[in-house]
Amino acid sequence: MTYKQRKVITILGRDIKVGESCELSFGVANLHTSSSVDVPVIIERSKKPGPVVLFTAGIHGDEVNGVEIVRQIIAKGINKPKCGTIVCLPVINVFGFINLNREFPDGRDLNRVFPGTKKGSLASRVANKLVTEVIPDVDFVVDFHTGGAGRFNAPQMRIVKNNPELDLLANIFNAPFVLYSKNIKKSFRSVLSKHGKPVLLFEGGKSNHIDNNITNTGVNGAKRVLNHLGMLSTKFKVSKPKNNPVYILDSRWQRANISGMFRASVQISSEVTKGDIIGNITDPYGKFNHFVRASFSGYIINVNESPIVYQGDALFHITTKLKPSSSEKSHLKSNL
């Protein structure tokens, strides 16, 4: 990773010198009650030069597990770097977080309005402030998300294809899965990419829920990345990954053929074969029991945990094409 050595960085209009720690307030508007809403931005700068890393969460107000990951990074002191600077913004959409809603009070999805405008909607103004007053001096971003609408995501990193730097960082973070996905228009990830800022987007768990496994995966991944950058304090240990991530080139949703009461019978992250029974849909009156069989062979990377589903609802997200591992590539070459 390349970065500029800066004696002073500017965030939210405040100049921060090397060796300085501070807490700034990220705010755009008061509540309708005129009460102020102050979202802390925690900044820790080492005296030694290094990258400026930004940890963010809560772009969607109901994605509390991402907020918990960044909270733990701060609470444990992981955000105090051996070199460089670590910036933590635990809750971007504080308006949604207050009510545990995904969107802003204006009904807009913050992650679809970037880069925003200074005089636009409330969501657009927050996006604009983030882009113009927080990220200019940032070198690298890790953005934490969770699944929505009652669907539980396996811990996974999402990056664009054909970017060796992101491949390396995702491998170091070591979430169980790495999903190649395009940058969505007007998303935070998209605007960061346009500004030349590498970004790892972590997905795990579901909305309005905190899962210990997801939290631990996120925190441990953050420590590995900081250790790779030479920023992690020596008082922290970095766990060695048990396995390499599974790289996903393509995946498909399996949808409900009928409506009813739904229960999955496979665990998240498990590998299934086409035709395996992976769940069942029943009616409230005991008249039928419909078995859901896997339409594809692959890993289950998302499970719908809603007890009630309708015909056409997404039930499972299943991988359909994987990137060959190094050992598989070597085996293929030896057989040519």
From TrEMBL:
Residues 49-229 form the Succinylglutamate desuccinylase/Aspartoacylase catalytic domain. Its cofactor is Zn(2+). The keyword NAD does not apply. It holds the Pfam family AstE_AspA_cat. Keywords: Hydrolase, Metal-binding, Zinc. Gene3D superfamilies: Zn peptidases. It comes from the Bacteria. This is Succinylglutamate desuccinylase/Aspartoacylase catalytic domain-containing protein.
